[in-house]
Amino acid sequence: MTGAAAAGVLAGCSDAGGGQGAAAGAREAAKRAEAALRERTSAASRALVTQYDAVLAMHPSLRDRLAPLRDQAVQHDRALAPPPAATPSPAVTPSAAVSSVPADAEDAVKQLADAERRTSDAQLAAVAAAPPELARLLASVAASGAGHAYLLGGGA
Predict the structure, then answer these.
(1) SS3 of 33, please?
(2) Closest by alpha carbon to 98, among 66, 51, 58, 59?
């Protein structure tokens, strides 16, 4: 009987250890997924900042109107960026290339409004895959981007 009891205890220990290992693996996978999601959404904000910079370089007269919105996009990038140790490898880079800036300032602003809307839509879509804290941040950033699109004359 003692041998059978010992075997049962050992079997229970190995199951518990496997469960802990699986839980640790699941936590690690969740951290990697969150870091990748953060990097993608942060990259979208960086691409938006790049587009603001291109418009401002072409149309410096828009600086007073666009600089506050650009600065908020920089803050969104910083807020969404994964911690340095959590950055997935290889790092995700912005996929949206900055298109050429229209020579007409108002057309350039309309293009920025469209970029703000697309970025906002992508960040809002990412909410579904995000853990609660990141989901709240993404929703806030998406709302801010929608507000920027509206302020830029892009409508609702």
Answers:
(1) helix
(2) 51
Let me know if 55 is exposed, middle or buried by CB neighbors in 10 A (0-12, 13-18, 19+): buried
Torsion of CA 28, 88, 42, 61, to 10 degrees: 160
Q: Which residues contact 38 (CB under 8 A, 6 or more apart)?
A: 80, 81, 82, 86, 134
d(CA 122, CA 145) in angstroms, rounded, equals 10
Q: pTM of the full predicted structure? A: 0.76
Rg value, the chain, Cα: 23
> Cis before residue 94, ω within 30 degrees of 0?
no
Summarize pLDDT for 18-57 with one digit per residue, the tens: 568 888 888 888 899 999 999 999 999 999 999 999 999 9
Q: Cα separations (Å) of 27 from 48, 82, 100?
A: 32, 16, 43
